């Protein structure tokens, strides 16, 4: 049954990938860049959904894991001229290593204590990056992935290249995560989240399960970080502020932390908010200070509204309503 579902998912991802390929040739440069950003956020939000929604562990500093992947990829590219694909694998492995260390702490910490540890990491990492010259200090590092070796025509732009890379990475990541979450590992995470004592009595090593969840989540976040640095062309402390962690958490809540199905909702919202904020600021003639802080205010407001009215995300709420209607029809 799981193999059949996996095959169906693979077909869906191929179809969706083909649609994205066609769309990339019919929209302008700005939309292509936004499409690449959406793909990056899809991966980052999916990593939080795995960690929080399935494993029950809260991370308030996920942006730090993205930064670890971004810096690792940039250093490998700049210092050792590593091929781009290998750089992305290095980003995944280095962030996964950080996830192992955090997961070891997570196995002993719960609730606000774990959230506090991840928050401290997100706050302290930029200062740490400034202490090592190889990381470029406050100015950061350039992360240039270059163009493909074969010429794909004059209309093939750099942003389109970014879009293809990010979209392919997102499709592969989502396919792998959907299979992992549908496997016994996903079932173990859900069991531990629902009732840790009962899970332990059932023979599940919840400590080891938490470490595995943090490791995979961190590795996926590291890939998102490397892709994000690719789209903006640089890696610096300012590119991974604490606000990024909160934005990703908001995106996960909007998507529904207990399901991957709505991840596009959160990703599209996070990309759209700055543009909407800019339009609002121009309409009301706001000052530069208000224009700068308006996106953060909108993200915070959206998080509060979602928690109050749609706590499990729109996709999960739609499923619940559909299930209730089916029960009512049967009765």
UniProtKB/TrEMBL annotation:
Q: What is its main location?
A: membrane
| A GO CC term attached to the entry | plasma membrane
Q: Which GO terms describe its molecular function?
A: branched-chain amino acid transmembrane transporter activity
CDD domains named among the record's database cross-references: TM_PBP1_LivM_like (cd06581)
The protein's UniProt keywords, in alphabetical order, are:
Cell membrane, Membrane, Transmembrane, Transmembrane helix
**Membrane topology category:** Multi-pass membrane protein
Membrane-spanning parts: 9-27, 33-51, 82-104, 111-129, 161-181, 211-232, 252-273, 294-312
Keyword hit for Nucleus: no
Q: Where in the cell is it found?
A: Cell membrane
Pfam families to which the protein is assigned, alphabetical: BPD_transp_2
Protein name (database record): Unannotated protein
């Amino acid at each position: 049954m799981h193999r059949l579902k996996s095959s169906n998912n693979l077909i869906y991802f191929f179809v969706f990938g083909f649609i994205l390929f066609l769309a990339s040739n019919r929209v302008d440069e700005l939309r292509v860049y936004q499409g690449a950003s959406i793909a990056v956020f899809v991966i980052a939000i999916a990593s939080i959904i795995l960690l929080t929604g399935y494993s029950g562990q809260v991370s308030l500093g996920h942006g730090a894991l993205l930064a670890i992947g971004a810096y690792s990829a940039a250093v490998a590219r700049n210092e050792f001229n590593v091929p781009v694909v290998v750089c992305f694998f290095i980003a995944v492995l280095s962030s996964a290593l950080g996830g192992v260390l955090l997961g070891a702490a997570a196995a002993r910490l719960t609730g606000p204590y774990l959230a506090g540890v991840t928050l401290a990491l997100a706050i302290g990492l930029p200062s740490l990056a400034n202490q090592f010259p190889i990381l470029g200090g406050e100015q950061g590092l350039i992360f240039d992935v270059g163009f493909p070796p074969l010429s794909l025509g004059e209309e093939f732009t750099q942003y389109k290249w970014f879009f293809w890379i990010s979209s392919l990475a997102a499709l592969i990541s989502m396919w792998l995560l959907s299979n992992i979450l549908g496997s016994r590992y996903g079932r173990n995470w859900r069991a531990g989240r629902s009732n840790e004592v009962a899970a332990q009595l059932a023979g599940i090593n919840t400590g080891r399960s938490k470490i595995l969840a943090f490791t995979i989540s961190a590795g996926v976040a590291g890939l998102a970080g490397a892709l994000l640095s690719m789209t903006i062309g640089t890696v610096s402390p300012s590119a991974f502020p604490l606000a990024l962690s909160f934005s990703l958490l908001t995106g996960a809540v909007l998507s529904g932390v207990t399901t991957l199905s709505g991840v596009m909702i959160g990703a599209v919202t996070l990309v759209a908010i700055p543009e909407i904020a800019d339009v609002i600021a121009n309409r009301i003639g706001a000052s530069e200070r208000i224009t700068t802080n308006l996106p953060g205010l909108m993200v915070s407001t959206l998080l509060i509204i979602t928690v109050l009215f749609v706590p499990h995300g729109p996709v999960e709420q739609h499923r619940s309503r559909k299930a209730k209607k089916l029960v009512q029809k049967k009765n």
